Amino acid sequence: MREVVNGETFTDSSDELNQVEKVEEYTSSVIVRSRKMRNGDRSLFLDIYYGKGQRAYESVGLYLRKDDSEEKHKDIWKEAEKKAKERMKALKDGTFEKRVGRRGYKPHGEDPDANVDKYKEYLATKKVKTEIAVAETERKRNSKTKEPVRIRFKELANGNKSVYLSINVNGRRTYDYLRLYLIPEVDAAAREQNKQTMQAVYAIKAQRIMSITNGIAGLKDKSRIKMRLVDWLEIFRDAQVERGRQSARNWVNSVLNAVREHSPNVTLAEMTKEYCNGFMVFLLNDYITYKHTHPSKSTVMNYLKCLKAAFNMAIEEEIMDDNPVLRLRMDVLKGGGTKREYLTVDEVKRLIDTPCKREDIKAAFLFSCFCGLRISDVKSLKWKNIITEGDKTRVEILQYKTKQPLYLPLNKQALRWMPERGSASDEDKVFPTLPSKNYDCIPEWSRAAGISKHVTYHVSRHTFATMELTMGADLYTTSKLLGHTEVRTTQIYAKIINKKKDEAVSLLDSAFEE
């Protein structure tokens, strides 16, 4: 029998006569070969011919590293040749058996029948193992039944944690805000308080699971409908803030203040058309806002819209059956128009000439008079939002209220009231010293200028709109400058201008009356 190792032929001298006969049948050989890998190294393997048309490849687990010396390469190659001789010996002894690689048995060569049985055996074994794995996966999936009620925590700004329940019934997820809180465990008393709080949470969780088990939670949660309206409004407010609707916070807080004054202990179960109608009448006739005025009809309409949204959330969570706000007749809130306080050009000039105890607020207010930006956008305005190209300057922002982009050219008067940039970076604010809330100096400043109107910061935006329309700007352009999402919002200002025109024409009649 001939033996070929690394391309060299070795003759078995024990039986030279039989050798010739065997060579005529077939040639068996074991050759050491190498394959280049992606990293530049070479992997050594055996190329084995073990019968007529039968060939196999076997890895020897040896590598020629590109950074190793030539001497080391020779030593590794000798070790591979040693393994080749061992496999050749197995061929001579008749004990050779092809090793199964990762891909299993596959028939090769001109006569694949020699290996078909082993290949079929391999496929059958693989199929059985796959079926066992699938059955085991299904068993584990069924054993891990999802808990329908889970306790969740939310970090609050004051360091406390709000505890609420996440309820999943038939693939539908709802949240039960418990109005329970964990405080920082700074001492034994705090730890004891948290322990009692969690005991209450676990008790409520057990009740919810019992309701689901009995089939009640899938229909309507009878216990939560006894919740006070003020508590539900707080839950609704927190849910809106969690969804990124920061502007909803102020509206819900305003409704909360009104409900606390009107009916602090009323429950969701008492929400009827009659209650909502009485609440609307209370808002129109008796309620006094923090501005010491009755809310306008448009404000009352917004209060009711907020209440309607809160009830819709209660319906979604299957606490209430219907929304009583939808059955209200709101004709009394329509047709009266919306009053927009604004300043005339003369009044703006008087404000410019009148000192203000907060010059930064004065500059920001007048800046808004000439560009129409809301206070929320002015406070967050950064120098990177001010784009100058040649002699043109514009503001590019994402509006805080509507989350819509705004591209607003700035006129010379607006630029006049912008502070000097100096060494400020792109991330620095244009008006860095503006307060977060207190703008009480604006009414004082306007009174000092001899203006009897109730002037707030938002009046600057109304002033910009009316000045633009008075100077001849069209409604559509003014709407875009204000960042309105609907032109009908801007039409309110157009009605104001038309009313002023009617009054001006009437002056001629009075001048020539006999």
UniProtKB/TrEMBL annotation:
Q: Which domain of life is it from?
A: Bacteria
Q: List, alphabetically, the SUPFAM superfamilies matched.
A: DNA breaking-rejoining enzymes
> Which Gene3D superfamilies does the protein's record reference?
1.10.150.130, Intergrase catalytic core (1.10.443.10)
Residue ranges of the Tyr recombinase domain?
338-506
Q: Name one GO biological process term.
A: DNA recombination
> CDD domains annotated for this entry?
INTN1_C_like
Instruction: Provide any one GO MF term from the record.
Output: DNA binding
Keywords, alphabetical: DNA recombination, DNA-binding
Stored Pfam families: Arm-DNA-bind_5, Phage_int_SAM_5, Phage_integrase
Q: Does the keyword DNA-binding apply?
A: yes
**Cross-referenced InterPro entries:** Arm-DNA-bind_5, DNA_brk_join_enz, Integrase-like_cat_sf, Integrase_catalytic, Integrase_recombinase_N, SAM-like_dom, Tyrosine_recombinase_XerCD
Question: DNA-binding among the record's keywords?
Answer: yes
**Of which family is this protein a member?**
Belongs to the 'phage' integrase family.
By what name is this protein known?
Site-specific integrase
